[in-house]
Amino acid sequence: xxxxxxxxxxxxxxxxxxxxxxxxxxxxxxxxxxxxxxxxxxxxxxxxxxxxxxxxxxxxxxxxxxxxxxxxxxxxxxxxxxxxxxxxxxxxxxxxxxxxxxxxxxxxxxxxxxxxxxxxxxxxxxxxxxxxxxxxxxxxxxxxxxxxxxxxxxxxxxxxxxxxxxxxxxxxxxxxxxxxxxxxxxxxxxxxxxxxxxxxxxxxxxxxxxxxxxxxxxxxxxxxxxxx
Length: 228
Hints:
Strand order of the largest sheet: 1-2
Helix content: over 70%
Distance between the termini: 200 Å
Mean pLDDT: 78
Strand content: under 5%
Shape: rod-shaped
Number of strands: 2
């Protein structure tokens, strides 16, 4: 009986030990499955994180390029602004210089205008004086001629005018070139040639010496003389 009891105990112990080992095995399998699932989950998370890292790197490169482009554009704008400022300053200085030059030129023009005006006034005064002198000479010549002629010697009305015209004639051997320009209407070069070719014995020498053209001589011959 004792042997049978012992055998039964041993069999029960073996059966009990087998049950415990099977439970541990099943538990280990379940734990291994959990570990596999966690590992797979971890791998997926790792892949997602690696993808995020790659995306962040790409964004970093993109933002870096954009930042560099922005810095280059800013530098270009600053350089352009400096160049434009320099150009504007140069243009402003150039305009200021032109304004100064124009102001000085305008001042010179006004001065020249005043000089010309004074010269014109002087010429007008000179013309008026010469006209008065010619008129006075004509009146004096007419008075002297009338006083020296007797009634029997007095010629007709046409003849009495000749001495007046003769007394008013301009002596081309003595008068200045300006006087000939003013009162005879000659050109400057014509008056200068008359002066440089003096003296003249007869009026016709103006044409004979090629001093003035025949047409000009015909216009002035009755208003000039060569009296010494």
